[in-house]
Amino acid sequence: MKCSMMFRRMTAVAGILLMLLTGGVTVHAESETDTGVPDGNGNFLIVYSDRYEESVENTVETMVTMAAAMGKTADYGTVSECIPVLDQYEYVICCDLREEEESFCQKLMDYQGKIMVLGSSFMKQYLKLYGYRSSWYEEEGSVTRGELRYSFLEGTPYSGIVKLDGMLSFLYTGYSSGEILIGSRSIPFCSQAAEVRFIPVTEYESEVAKAALIRELSEWLWPYKDSPPDYAQYLVLDELYPFMNCSELKRQIDTIIEAAVPFTLSVMPVWQNVDYPSMKEFCQVLAYAQNNGGTVILHAPIIHKTVDDIEEIYEKLTDMTMAYVNQGVYPMGIQVPGSWLNDELHLKVLERYRTVFVYDEGKETGFSMETGTSRFARQGHQTVMPSIGLGKMGETSLKCYSSAVYISGATNEAELAAILDNSRVSQAPFMNLWDLDHSVWINDYNIAYTDGLLFLNGEYTEMVFESEEYEEDYDYQRRMIQRITVNLQNQNHFLMGVVVVVIIIFASFIIFARVRNRKQFLHKEKEE
Amino acid sequence: MSFVDALSLYAIISIWLLMIINVILSIGGFIYYMKVGKTDGRIPLKEYPMVSILVPAHNESLVITRTVRALLNFHYPKDRFEVIVINDNSSDDTAEKLEEIQKEIPEGRLIVISTGKEVGGTGKSNALNIGFSLAKGDVIAIYDADNTPEPEALIILVENLMADDKIGAVIGKFRTRNRNASILSRFVNIETLAYQCMNQAGRYYFFKLCTIPGTNYVIRRSIIEQIGGWDTKALSEDTEISFRLYRMGYYIKQMPLAVTWEQEPHLLNVWFRQRTRWAKGNLYVLMKNFRYAFDKSAGAMRLDVIYYLIVYILMLSSLVISDIIFLSGILGWVHVTLGGFSSLLWGMAILVFVFNVMLTLATEKNEFSLESALLVLLMLFTYAKLWVFVVLKAVYLTITDQLFHKEVKWDKTVRYVEQASVKGEEVDQVFDRKERRKHGR
Q: B351 vs A499: CB contact, 8 Å cut-off?
């Protein structure tokens, strides 16, 4: 026993030494100090006005984060910040610029790379400088809204309302994609004028507009004449708790296996009660899934920003991961909220993971225009962003970035069947995470999956599923309160229902009492 | 689950449990109010029993005149009731004030008992026992010295008491006469209506349980004799006697149409001392009757003991815990990592609280307004928090009293001359107007 422990420790130490010597972290940690201005190292540059609006910030964030899922790094800055570094980029996007300084326009005229312009105002200024005659294009400055129609894959186009800063269309265009309906007129969503790729939309709030922008961005960034490669989508059974109903989980997994759709299981982190039979049972189901094509990723724990001791976080993450590894379940990546991509501490934590799934937690992500670049993208992860679900069941129609379709662990049978049906016919391919290489580094452990082989601390490990016995009648000391803690969120939904009913009852009682009081009052007044 | 998570879970479950109990009681109370509101509350009797109205008064010269006049003005057969004021070791001119009224009322319906240091001045229970020894009535009515009951209050209470032999006592409703004196008195007014009246109505409607509020109630003489008078050790003699009534198999009825108006504290220190006394009294009763929570033979009374336990243990601890966690969270000392633990839970609790109180206010005239809704919200974050300090102090005092064998000391609520004495006059005028209307004048 002691020998075995000693051997493990020695292996762990050797593993760490090996990693340190070979720079074993598989992602590229950012070593340079951020200056807050673009430094010319990104794949493309986004230029926005010195006096930008909030919508510009949203558009920039969309492009920056989605570019990371395409494996590209976006740098961004104001006009004045970008002028000195413009020539260092092959691709430049002018995002909702207005009447800009002559110096910038002149710089752009001399620029040899590819330009994309979002918004009509600046496009007109640029065209005039370029020598475009007004007879070559149509314009109407008062137009502010239009209906976007865009086909992503074969089939009916998706539509949505978009904001414009005037209408601008070219009589001669080399490239055209999508359309924007303005009254009876139709102009392209994306077109080519001179050397410039042009999109007249200035706000990308709607999902369709966002998806169309990303698609156009991906096409434009592709340096060759053919289309860029297809990225896959991943089906993720999300927020799986170790103490959930395992037979129900097994049923869901069997349904997915039967549907022959590759899938990933996102497990919630645990570091307490890991020796409970229910944890064992849960891990048995996960191992079963793992041996039937499913991959496992670890859902990010809640880390409060006030916790600035990264060693403490590493330690916790180590415990959380080992809780699964010890039971034959190997998390291949981590699932994090969007806010992790913009926070120093979290970015540091992410350096230990090659594969990162991002989910939208519906909160502010903390994206800052001051950063000048996406540090997350520069870390070089395999990034999977949440899918822009244009379809009924949340499936994506985009193949230009890696996307995840998240399904709640509480999804019922019928919903799951419908999602799987959609997945089977989806034109965006579903991919198995086992087809990629992964690496996870925890304090004294390195999990690497390379060329279809699993290595634990550099040692090849075979993944074999062996059914094990677990105590079925174990007394968890789980009373009503403990049951509630298992899923307080469900209790919240129940409470919300109760509150709505109570409020309706109280409101109707109040109305009744008020009417009655008034009647009694009037009655007495009459008597008097 | 961390220790903080466990505490948070405990706090949130406790608060929601209390909230649900209050919601249920409010619904019951509202239905009862509406039912009673259809009637005039009267159940005429062939023969009206003799009633002795006991009024303990210790240094009450500021309010006693108005109170006694209101009591003498009851619409009850004049020869069937007497008012006994126990001038309990007063050092002010209460005695002179009472003497003046006595001269105006020659029938001898106003009896004044003045006690000295030897027998008096030790509290309300003692004063009531002294008054009771001279009382002739088969029914005993109790009014505090600052009350202005409506003329119909007594007859409604007595008729309801006599309507059922199983009823041991009937309690009326009390309203705040000086509600506009300060923001504190406005809070007290809201609290009184929502948590002392509506809540009581709900408890009565569902379980036939009520707690005697200390004033504006009638009780059978035989019961007082049987229990040997009021417990002089109890600071909340009202709660104490309620429990004794339950144990005897009687029930207590609430009759919201029997209304009395009373002066509530408008200053924080006065309020704090009064509430500390109440809380201390309730803790004494709780300790005395704790064993009944586990006694099946105690019947419905068990519910009341449990209710008090919930209020004084669950509510107090959950409020203290949630406040500590909230403050520590702001300071970054602790973090709750409970799944689903969100501000939504607190938001919903606040919403339910506001609606709950507004429902009560809607049943009263001139109480339901946007201003009241804002006050309720403000009350939650100010007045309600003070309750925690009140109970904590009461717990501390109870413990020190037990440890050092201190004698129970009655802390009298300080009265004041209402600025708008006119307001009080207005109340009297309303009664007069009602009276004139009734007699067709």
A: yes
